[in-house]
Amino acid sequence: MQHLQTMFNHMPTFQGLIASAILLSMTFYFGIQKNYINDIRSYSHRSMEILRPYVSENDYYLMKSEYFQVKSEEDFKKFNLKLTSHASKNNVNLPVSVISK
Fold first, then answer.
1. DSSP code string of 19-31
2. Does the keyword Transmembrane helix apply (predicted)?
3. What gap in Å lies between CA 25 and CA 20, rounded to an integer?
4. 98 contacts: CB under 8 Å, gap ≥ 6
5. pTM assigned to the model
6. Which residues contact 44 (CB under 8 A, 6 or more apart)?
7. Hey, CA dihedral for 67, 70, 73, 78, is it positive or negative?
8. Least confident window among 1-5, 41-45, 67-71
9. Residue 14 CA from chain centroid, whole number
10. Is the pLDDT of residue 98 over 70?
């Protein structure tokens, strides 16, 4: 009986530890996710600026418009395919993509 009483006395501490572990895990996960998104943004902007002298003004503005319309991973893959296609046609090296890491 004494053992059960001791266990119940430590319950709030245990619950606090679990809550802390969950919050720490969530903070870590969202930090990684935010970093990944920032890497994708940086890659996209750098790639468009690298390609800018090699494509027409209209193509550049189309790329920029498509970039701002990206809402999902699938949209980004289509956008990235266009970037790499322009780069390939013009023998231009783009930065290393986050997706290819």
1. HHHHHHHHHHHHH
2. yes
3. 9
4. 36, 39, 40, 43
5. 0.69
6. 67, 79, 80, 83
7. negative
8. 1-5
9. 34
10. no
